[in-house]
Design brief:
mainly beta; 4-stranded antiparallel beta sheet; 1 helix; 10 strands
Length: about 120
């Protein structure tokens, strides 16, 4: 079973940028799609963005125009570029197979913490 590991989080000021990575232990293309999700303190986990195997991207309205999801097949990695960060973007960010998430199957990795604060 291919596993996913998140990295790249950190602390930035409002308006700053970060690039998160989701590295697969095998072929990233073995997934029909990869999604990014986030969970802020005291809130439920929410979907952020999805990249399909064919390259179609979708975004939550709250991040549209600020975040970009992309893939580097040679590195079996999906990225999430976070620009124009806001304090409300503070959360632990996770990547996962969206189809498994919808079915309530599979587990979650440790995620990567993003903190936006002045």
């Amino acid at each position: 079973q291919v596993q996913l590991v998140e990295s790249g989080g950190g602390s930035v000021q409002p308006g700053g940028s970060l690039r998160l990575s989701c590295a697969a232990s095998g072929s990233i293309l073995s997934f029909g799609a990869i999604g990014w999700f986030r969970q802020a303190p005291g809130k439920e986990r929410e979907w952020v963005a999805t990249l399909s195997r064919t390259g179609t991207t979708t975004y939550a309205d709250s991040v549209k125009g600020r975040f970009t999801i992309s893939r580097e097949n040679a590195k079996n990695t999906v990225y999430l570029q976070l620009n124009s960060l806001k304090p409300e973007d503070t959360a632990v960010y996770y990547c996962n197979d969206p189809s498994l998430v919808l079915l309530g199957k599979g587990g979650w990795g440790q995620g990567t913490q993003v903190t936006v604060s002045s």
